[in-house]
Amino acid sequence: MTASAPPAGLRGEPLRPAGEKSARVAWRRLAWVTWRQQRTALAGLLALPAVAAIAMAAIAAPDYGSSYTDDPARVGLKSAVVLLLQLTPVLAGLFIGAPLIAREAEQGTLRLAWTQGADRTRWLLCRTVPVMVLLALAAAGLGLELRWWLRAGGWAVWYAGGQWLPQFFSLNPLPFAGWVTLSVSLGLLLGAAIRRTVPAMAAMLACYAALLSATSLWWRHGYLSPLLRVVPHATIVSGGGYGYGVGFSRGSGPGPYILGTRLGWPDGRPLSASQLNHTAAWFREHHIAVWMTYQPSNRYSTFQFIEFGWLVALSALLVGLTVVLISRRAA
Amino acid sequence: MKLMETSGLTKRFRRTWALRDCTLAIPAGHVVALVGPNGAGKTTLLNLAVGLLRPTFGRISVLGGEKPGSVAARRRVGFVAQDAPLYGHLPAGDMLHLARNLNLTWDEERARDRLADLGIPLARKVRQLSGGQRAQLALTVALAKRPEVLILDEPLASLDPLARHDFMGSLMAAVAEDGLSVVFSSHVVSELERIADYLVVLNEGRLQLAGEVDVLLGAHHILTGPGGEMALDSKRIAVVQATQAGAQAHLLVRTSAADQPDPPGWLSSPATLEDLVLAYLRDPKASVLPGPDLTAAAGGQAARA
Amino acid sequence: MTGVTSVPTEQDARSPSRAGLALATWRQHRTAIAGLLIVFAAVAIGLIVTGIQTHRAYAIYNQHHCIVTRLPMCHQIVIGPMNASSWALGKLTGAAVLPVLAGIFIGAPLMAREFETGAFRFSLAQGVSIRRQLACKLLVLGTVLAVASAAVGALIMWDVSPYEHIAVGRYSGLSYWWPAYFNNTVLMLPVWVLLDFGLGVLAGVVIKRLLPAVAAALVAAAAAAAGTTGYATSSPTGLYSNLLRVSAMTMRDGPSPFGHTTYNASWPQAVIGTASYPPYPPGSVQVTSWFAGPGGRPLSPKAELQLFNSIPDSVFRSLARTRAWVGARHITAWISYQPADRYWIFQSVLAAILLAVAAAAGFAAVWLAGRRR
Q: What is each CA distance from B102 to A39, B97, C304, in whole angstroms?
C-alpha cells in the first residue's frame, strides 16, 4: 500500500475526515471489551449465589418453627443460603469493583487502554454500568427466590418483627440489588483512588462493613420517624419482667419492627428507675402500660424503596466521583 | 505541521521535577530519537505527549495543535508504553480484537498479515509469547489503527539483539509504507544512527539538544591535536567536550559557521552521532537549543557554551 | 580502568543471617503487617470497650445476687448490656472473620503478587534460596499473626466470661462449647489464623496469579471452617462434632419422661413443663441423645417415630400417667455429653490437628516455591 492511497478503516470503510470531533467508539464495541475481560470474574462471582439458588429450588425450606433438634440439616441449609447470599455483594465489590481500575494500574495496561480511540469516561462507564445492572438484576431475582422459598416453608407467618431482621431485610429484592450496586461502585472508587489491588480490596471491605453495620443497627430504624403505642394485652409482672404477645400474625405479611419497649404512664411518659420497683398491683392501679417504639408493618415496602433509593443514589455518586478522578489523574 | 510542540513544559511529581522548562518544535515527517540517561524525563515527556499526564506548567500540543489525549489526538497517535503492556491472559487474536473495539479506525487485514509474517500464533496467550513477540504484537496494535505518528517508549529495552533488529526493521518498513512519523525513546545510542533523522537529548529533566541529525552532525566535529594549552577562538568555536589521552587531546567542538578552516595544529574529523550524544550527556550544562519557531540551526541564538 | 580484584572474605561467603532475612521481610511487608495490626487493634479496642461495660453490669448483677433474687434490675441487665444472644454472638462472629482476612489479604498476595509482577525473578537471583526466603517470611509473619490473634483471643475470653457465668446451670446464656466461642479462644483463634494464612500462602504459590489466589484462599478458608464445625452444632459431619463423640459420658435424661429436648409443641404443659433444663452438669455439652428400649438397646429413628405416634391422648393429660406408660414399656431417655473439665483437652486436640494442617500447608508452599519447573 502506498502512502497516497487512503487507508481502509473497519470493514473497508474510509476513515472519517481528520477534523471531525464527534466521532466516538460505539457502545457495543466497548461492551464486547467489557465482556471479554470480565467474564471469568463474573462467572466465578455468580457461581456462589447460583449454588444458593439451585439449593433453594431443589430442597424445601425448613418449616417455620422447626429447630435444630428437629431438622438440623435443613435449618442449617437456611442459614447457609442466607450466608451465601449475604456474601454476594461483598465478593462483587472485592472481585469486580476493586480490581477494575486498580489491577490495570498495577499491571500497567491502563497506559494501553487510555491511549486508544475510546475516551476514559466512556471506557469506564461501559465497563461498570452493564456489570452493575446485571448484578443488580441477579440480586433482585435471588431476593425474589428467597422470599418465595421462605414463604413456601410457612415463614410468611413470622413471629413479630422477624422479617425486619438485618440479615433478612437486606436480602429483599430491592435492597439486595442496591447493596450489590453500592458494593461494586465502592470498590471501583477505592480502586481508582488507591491504585493497588490488595489495599483497595481491604479498604472496600472495611467501608462496606461499616456502611452495612451502620444501616442495620441504626439508620434503618429511622427512615421514617418511629411510632409510639401501647402494646395491647401485655401482662406486667414486675418492673423488670413484663410479657406481651404481639399477635400480628394474621395475613402473610411481616409484623411490626419493634425498636424498644418500656413501661410508661398512660400518657406515654416513661417510669423512672425507682418507680420500676413497685408491685404488679401498683402498676394495675396506675394503669401503667407497656409502650413500644416501632415501625408498623405497612411500612415494610416503603422502607425497602427508601433503602434501594439511597443505595442507588450513593452508587451513582461514587461512580461519578470515579469518573472525575480518572479524568484528572495520570495513568 | 509540527509533530510536537512544547513551550516551557514542566512536570513535577510531588517533590521531584521530572521535566523542566522544555521548549521544542519537532516538524512532522521525521523519525525522532529521544535520548537520555535513566531518569532524564523521556517517559514523562512521552506520557505528556499522549495525554497520560497533565503538565504542571507550560503547554504541549501534537500533530499541529491538537491537545494530547483529546479524541482527535488519540485517533492519530499510536502509542506503545514502556514494557509493551498488553493483556496477558488474552490470546493474541483476542488482544487484537479488543484493541479493534477500542478504536475508531482499524485495519484488521494488515494486522493479521503482520502477525502471520512474524509467525505469532493468534491462539497463543500473550503472556506465553516471548519478549520480542510481545513487542511486535504491541507494535502491530499501534500500527493497525493507522496513526499519523507512532510514539514508542523504550521499545528495545528488553529485547535481545536479534529481536531488536527485527523490530527496527518492521518499524522502518512501516515508516516507508505509510509515511509515518515516529518518536521513540532509547538509551541505546549505537542503534540510532541508522534510523533517526531528528535527535532530542534530555538530561536531568532539561532539554539539551534538539535538531535534525544532518544539521547537528554538520555543526559538530572532532578536533585532534597536541595536548597542553592551545588557544582557540572561543567566539567561533565552542568546545563541548575535551578528553586527553597521553600527549593528544580530542575535542568535540561546535562551530558557528560552516567551512571553517581548522585551527593551526589541529586536525578535524567528522563526529558520529554516538560521539555527539555521549559528549552532551556527560556535560549536563551544555546544550544546543533551537528557538520554538526555527528548525535547528547550528549555534542558534539559545546556544550556551 | 585498572583492575583491582578483591578477594572475597569469609563474611561474603556466608549466607545472609537470619536477622537480616527477617529485617528484609519486615521491610517488604510493612504495609500489610501494619494494616493487619490496625484491624486487630480495632477489634481489640471494641472488645475492651464492650467488655468493660459487660463486666460492670455483671458486678452489679453479682452485688444483688441476681441468680437468686431476680430483681427487676437484674432482668434489665440480662436483656440489656448482657444480652447474650445478640451481643456476644455478634462479637464472636466478628472475630471469626479475622482468620479469613489474614488468609486473603496477607497469605494469598504474599507469593502471588511476586509471581505476577515478576519480582519473583528478582528474589530468585538473590543469595538466599527462594525456599529460605519464603520460610523466613512465613515465620516472621506467622509469629506476628499468632501473637496478635492470641491477644485478641484472650480478650474475647475475658469479654465473654460474664455470659458464661450467668449461663451456668441455665439453658439460656452462652455455652463456651458453642463453635462460635470454641473457635475464638486464646488457643484456637491463633490456630485458625495460622491455618487460613497457610492455606492462603499455598494458594498463592500454586496459582501464581493474585485474584484467583485470593478467591481460592477464600474458598479454602470457608471449606476448612465448614468441614471442621459443620453448619450446626448437632450436625454429625463436622470434625468438631465427631471429636466430641470420642469417649463421651452417658447419663439418663430427665426429668421429663421423654428427655429435655424431645417434645412436640402440641403436648400439654404438664409433660413439657418439666423439660426445660438439661440434666448434664453445668459447663458440659450434650453430644447426642437417644431412647433405649427394654434391655437398654437404643431405638432406631423409625422405632422412635412409631413410639410417639402410638401414644394415646388420654395418657398425655397427666404427667403421672405419661410416666407410667413410658415406664411400662421400659423406655428410657439417654444423653451423652462431654464434661466441663475436658474443655481444654478438646481445645488442645483440635488446635493440634489444625496446626498440623497449617504446618503442612506451609511446608508444601515452601517446597513448591523452590521447585524448578
A: 18, 9, 70
